[in-house]
Specification:
Mean pLDDT: 91
Number of strands: 10
Strand order of the largest sheet: 6-7-8-3-9-10
Distance between the termini: 24 Å
CATH class of the largest domain: Alpha Beta
Number of helices: 9
Number of domains: 2
Radius of gyration: 18 Å
Structural class: alpha/beta
Low-confidence stretches: 237-245
CATH superfamily of the largest domain: P-loop containing nucleotide triphosphate hydrolases
Oligomer: single chain
Largest sheet: 6 strands, mixed
Length: about 240
């Protein structure tokens, strides 16, 4: 479903992602973990076509992200880190715009908006502008745009950031439901969230994949990731790296 081969990206003299290769299959939630500046967001942005790699190939459902951009993106849903923008649009207008950008029109578009609105309990705010909503409600609207076209691969960068406990539960339940027939790559700084949602964990540090294993292989006797994560990334403490890389 998602295959990355020898992916690299530098910003000046900083190697944000260094020769990363991985392959994700369907029916799974893969946690993408690492300290700040490890290369998670840069990798996700390259997967989604927002950044061009210095080298390497990314394929989504067999389509090369660079050479077959539209076909690849039609199979992909993306929730960026701290999403913002389109504040003047009402939620329904935002979803309509995002649906049309994914090739949905007419009754198909209306049905898709109704469907994601129900799944994320957005019906009560559909007529309100995004810039009048709380951070939690805006986050849910952005999750809705990521799934409106029913993609095969979902890339979620901190999907529960800014949500209250009830909203986090709603989004986590949705992630579990969506994982049954698609691939989900989920970045989070909340280890408990990875423990709860993920089947597999990939850990990055200094732009290098330093661990890739089933969740059960990395947790302690209490099902916790924290000890393993600290051991793998202990050299990252105090390191200064560019933000969002």
């Amino acid at each position: 479903m998602l295959k990355i081969t020898n992916l690299s990206k530098s910003f000046g003299h900083v190697k944000a992602v260094n020769n990363l290769s991985l392959e994700l299959q369907s029916d799974s939630v893969v946690g993408f973990l690492g300290p700040n500046g490890a290369g998670k967001t840069t990798t996700m942005r390259m997967i989604c076509g927002y950044l061009i790699p210095d080298q390497g190939v990314i394929r989504i459902c067999g389509h090369d992200v660079r050479r077959e951009s539209q076909k690849a993106r039609s199979k992909l849903g993306y929730l960026p880190e701290a999403p913002n923008g389109f504040g003047h649009l009402r939620v329904v207008e935002f979803l309509r715009f995002c649906g049309q950008a994914r090739g949905l029109f007419g009754e198909g578009l209306n049905s898709a908006i109704d469907h994601v609105s129900q799944r994320l309990d957005l019906s009560s705010v559909l007529r309100r502008p995004l810039n009048q909503l709380s951070k939690g409600w805006r986050q849910r609207a952005w999750v809705a745009q990521a799934i409106i076209h029913d993609p095969h691969v979902l890339v979620l960068d901190e999907p529960t950031d800014g949500l209250d406990p009830n909203q986090k539960d709603l989004v986590r339940d949705l992630v579990r439901e969506l994982s049954r027939d698609r691939t989900i790559l989920l970045s989070t700084h909340i280890l408990e969230e990875a423990e709860e949602l993920c089947d597999r964990v990939i850990v990055l540090d200094k732009g290098i994949g330093i661990e890739d294993a089933p969740l059960a292989d990395l947790t302690d006797s209490n099902g916790r990731l924290s000890a393993c994560f600290r051991r793998l990334t202990k050299d990252a403490v105090g390191r200064v790296r560019p933000e969002n890389h």
